[in-house]
Amino acid sequence: GNPITITDPNMTRYMMTLDDAVDLVLYAFENGNSGDLFVQKAAAATLSVLAQALKEMLQADNEVRVIGTRHGEKLYETLVTREEMFKSEDMGNYFRIPADSRDLNYDKYFSEGEEDLSKVEEYHSHNTKQLNVEGMKELLLKLDIIQDDLKA
Predict the structure, then answer these.
(1) Domain count, the chain
(2) Core-most of 42, 43, 120, 123, by most CB within 10 Å?
């Protein structure tokens, strides 16, 4: 078959099934306030792990070809910035980020800032749980399209 092309084998992306997305929306409806943002603590994987898992599951011997990063493409995805993490609430499988209710009076920030903000790390696909090939296979098996291909 044709080669599997990836831009950077170390690039990470969050992995979320459609069922996970529905669960996130329902959880937000049940637990959110007006203006809140909810972020699921999803696992991530490198593109090389995803490609290898697919090859093994589908018993394919396609070459994996690295074509290089495209303009504007990011090595990892940031779902929650440092500033959002600072005010977020950890709700187990989700982060709740309350609406930004600051006023537009920026004068006070010329003389004072938020020292603790510098100690907070953003939440991105490089610092979350990383799936290995076996974990990626388990996740992919939840997808109907993969199930259908394996039955064929």
Answers:
(1) 1
(2) 42
